Amino acid sequence: MRVLVITGSGVSAESGIPTFRGPGGYWRNLDPVSLATPEAFARNPRLVWDWYNERRQRIRAAQPNPAHAALVRLAENAAEFLLVTQNVDDLHARAGLIPSQIVQIHGDIFLTRCSECDYTEETDSLTAAGTETSRDIPCCQHCGAFMRPGVVWFGEQLDPAKVERVEDYLARGRLDLTLVIGTTALFGYIVDWAMRPTAQLIEINPEESPMSAMAGQTVRQPAGIVLPGMVDSLLAQRSAPVL
Ligand code: OAD
Q1: Which of 62, 71, 59 is nearest to 6 (CA)?
Q2: What is the pTM of this model?
Q3: Percent composition of the chain: helix, strand, coil (DSSP 3-state, to 5)
Q4: Hey, which of 12, 203, 205, 211 would you mutate to test ligand 1's pocket, going by the most ligand atoms within 8 Å of its Cβ?
């Protein structure tokens, strides 16, 4: 069975990480959607770094929840599996998905990259990094420009190599199952991928989203509650020895 899973911040909500647009998303009374922009960084890089450093700390302190674990079980039992996440946290990986099973389409909060050249540094996701206690904005050791979080901001291009990985996977054959979990699905490319030919399109989201009208099945419950049982039934239903 060929499986595509698309996740958004709702899948990490039960791990205590606020969604972008839900309750707790605001930080110091600022809308995260207005902080995650190149313009916000140009105007006030310190403020944007403070926000990302707090988010890094919150993610380090968080643990994968039953939804992350259920997706690992699905991946282990599917013949082909790809998870495209809009999340910049590392909870899918910490739950046990391997890099070839994940595309972090909006980047990785634990990468720090130069705002001008290609220089990139990895921050250990489980330990505090020096830049996070310093009040100075980190600078590139090659060109001296400000370093920035390795995430995609509003108005920026996606990494073409990541888009290619998703397109290559989708081009290899028709999907048997598409799961869309915990996202308001506001980006055209997310809806486009979710709408690729599939035998079953299931949305898991306590609220209605633009995906709801297109999904064959919508499950209005938190992912951590519903996904473990849903994966059990999907695995039990499989007709072939390998899903
Ligand atoms: P949003 O905050 O827009 O949406 C979170 C979704 O998760 C909502 O539809 C909630 O109803 C749903 N949700 C909340 N709790 C849930 C739970 N326990 N189980 C399942 N679903 C739950 O976040 P995203 O859709 O991830 O992009 O946002 C997409 C992108 O927009 C982000 O990656 C970010 C953002 O602005 C960039 O920064 C480029």
Answers
A1: 71
A2: 0.93
A3: 35, 20, 45
A4: 205
Residue recorded with tokens 């599939």: 198
Catalytic residues: 106
In angstroms, what is the span from residue 184 Cα to ligand 1's centroid?
A: 5
DSSP per-residue codes, 180-193: EES----SHHHHHH
Q: In this structure, which residue's CA is closest to atom 15 in ligand 1? A: 10
d(CA 77, CA 205): 23
Asked if residues 235 and 73 have their Cβ atoms less than 8 Å apart, the reply is yes
132 DSSP assignment: G
Measure CA of the first residue to CA of the last residue in the chain; give whole Å: 5
pLDDT digits (tens, 9 = 90+) for 180-219: 999 999 999 999 999 999 999 999 999 999 999 999 999 9
CB of 218 closer than 8 Å to CB of 226: no
| 79-138 residue pLDDT tens | 999 999 999 999 999 999 999 999 999 999 999 999 999 999 987 654 444 445 556 788
